[in-house]
Specification:
Elements (H helix, E strand, L loop, with lengths): L32 H20 L9 H20 L5 H23 L10 H23 L13 H38 L4 H6 L2 H20 L2 H36 L2 H4 L5 H20 L10 H32 L3 H27 L3 H24 L5 H15 L9 H6 L2 H11 L5 H12 L18 H4 E4 L9 H7 L8 E8 L2 E7 L6 E8 L5 E3 L31 E2 L2 E2 L5
Parallel strand pairs: 1-2
Antiparallel strand pairs: 2-3, 3-4, 4-5, 6-7
Helix pairs in contact: 1-2, 1-7, 2-3, 3-4, 4-5, 4-13, 5-7, 5-8, 8-10, 8-11, 10-11, 10-12, 11-12, 12-13, 14-16, 16-17
Pfam families: DUF4153 (PF13687)
Organism: Sphingopyxis jiangsuensis
Protein name: DUF4153 domain-containing protein
Length: 589
Amino acid sequence: MSRMTDAATPPAADSPRAASARLDDSDAPWPLRPWIMAALCAVAGLLFHLLIDHQYPERLAAWRSALAAAVAVATIVFVLGVEQRRWHWALGFAALWGVIMGLIAWQTAGYNLQGTPVEWPFWSGMLAVLVATPLFQTRRDVAPDWRFWKLWQMPYARLHSHAWADAVLGAASLAFVGVTFLLTVLIGQMFKLIGINLIFDLLNDEWFGWMLAGAAFGGAVGVLRERDRLVATLQRLVMIVLAVLAPVLAAALLLFLLSLVGTGLGGLWSSGFSTAALMLAAAAFAVLLANAVIGNGGDEGSANRMMRGAAALLALAVLPLAAIAAASMQVRIGQYGWTPERIWGAIAVGIALAYGIAGLWAVALARWRFDELLRPLQQRLAIALMLLALSLALPLFDFGAISTRDQLARLESGAVKAEQFDWAAMAFDFGPEGRAALAALAKSSDKARADAAQAALGATNRYDLDGPRGLVPVAPIEERLRILPEGRALPDGARERIADSYMCSRSAQCVAVVIDEGRIAVLGQSDPGGAIQSDFVTRNDSGRWVVGQADRQPEAARKDVDLSTATISVETVAQRRVMVDGVAETEGF
C-alpha cells in the first residue's frame, strides 16, 4: 500500500501521531470523528425523511426530491472523503456534488408524469460521483494546491487504493447499519416485555429509522476511517478472495467464447434472457477480477503465473463480450426501435468496448507485463467515464425526444401497427416530447390511433393501459360517477381520491355511496356485466381521504368483569351493507 507523505514530516517517536492507526502519516488521529460523523448523518437522515415524507399516491414535489437528493449525496460524499487535512476541500467537493445531484433529481422528477427522480439520469450522476470521489481523495493527498487539471498524472496506486477502500468501507458500514437495526429491535422487544414500549414505538416512526440509519452509517465510517490500516487489510483480503475467482471466470469465458464458434450466436437471441445485459455483466466482472489480480502496482499484484495469465485472459475477453452485447443491442433496436433504456444500453456497450480495446492493447504490446500498461489506460478511462456519466446525467441530451422521433417513424412507415405500438412508453417514458406526440396523434384521422393516443393521455399510470379495457379513452370522472343518495354532495377532496382509486380510475361506471361525512363506499365496473370492484374511501385522522376502512381503535381492557359470575347473553346486531340488485357488495359496517 502506497504511503504518500509528500507534504508531511514523519512524526517524532513521542508524538501523539506515533500511536496512530492511520495508514497515511499525513493524517493525524481524529478521536471525535465517529461522533461527528454519526451526528452529521443523523441530522441528514432526519432532513431526508422530512423532505420525502408525503401521502401516497400523491406525487412528491420536484423541489423536495431535489433537496432530498442533495442532502443525501452531499452528506455521504463528505463523510466518505473528509480528513482534517484540507477538510474545506472535502466540504466544497461534497457541496458541489450535492448541488449537481439535486439539480439532476429536480430535472428528472419533472420529466415524466410519475415524478420519480431515481431514473437513468440520476443513476448516471451517481456513477459520476462514485468515480469522482477516489479521484478527489487522491488529488487531495498529493496535490500542492486546489487546481485539479492533469488528473491522469496522479499516482495510480493511491487512486486504486482509494477506490477499493471506499467500496469496502461503504459495504462494511451498510452491514453495520443492518446489525444496528437488529440490535435495536432486540432491545425494543426486551423492554416491551416489561411494559416499556418507547423503543418499539420509535422503530415504527420513519423519522427515527432514518436518523438511526444515518447515525449508524456515519459512526461506522468514522470508526473505520480512524483504523484504515485495518480497512487496508480487509481490502487486501477482499482482493485476494476475488483474485482466486479470476481463473474460474477466465476458464468459463474461454470455454463460452470457443463454444460460440461452433454454435453461433443464434441461440443467444432466443434464450429468453437479455443477452446484452448478461454480456455486459460478465465483462464488468472480468474487469473487476482482473484488477483484483494485478492490484495497485509494484508488489501488490499477484506473482503467480496462473493468476496473471487468468487476468490477461479476462482483459482480452472483455472485447468479444462487448461485441456480442453490441450485436444483441443492434438486433433489439432493429426489431423494436430506440427507447431511452436502449440508448443507455448502447452507451454501456460503448464503455465496455473502450475497456475491451484497452485490455487488448495492453496485452498485445506488453504481454506478461500488461498490467504496467493497463493501469494508466484505466486511469484515463475512469476520468473519461466520470465526465461522460456527468454529461449524460445533465439535461444536455433528450433521450425521450430521440426515442419519440424513432418510434413515430416506425408507426408512420407501418413497421409497427397501432395495436402493437407502445403507447404507455410514449405517455410515461419519453417525457414532454412523447406526450406532445400523443396529443398530435389524438387528432389523427385514423380512429384507432386517435383513440389509443387519447387513452394514453388520459391514463394516470401506465398500468391503466394494460387493464381489461386496454387502450380505450376514459371519460371524465364527472361523466362516469354516480353519487348516492341522489343529490348528496361529496365532501371536499373526496372526489379526487375516488377518481384516482383502483375502483374508478379506469372503470366505465363508478358509484359513490355516502355513508357519513367521513366514509364513502365506492363501486366500479369496467364494462356492463363485468366484475365489480368495491372498497371504502375514508377520512383519516389528519383529514386526508384514503382508500380502505379507517383503523378502529382497540377497546379498552375491562378490569371489573368476573367471567365466572358475569351475565352472558346473545345479542342480535343490525348491520348495513351496500347492495347491488339485492346482492351484497361490501362487508357489514
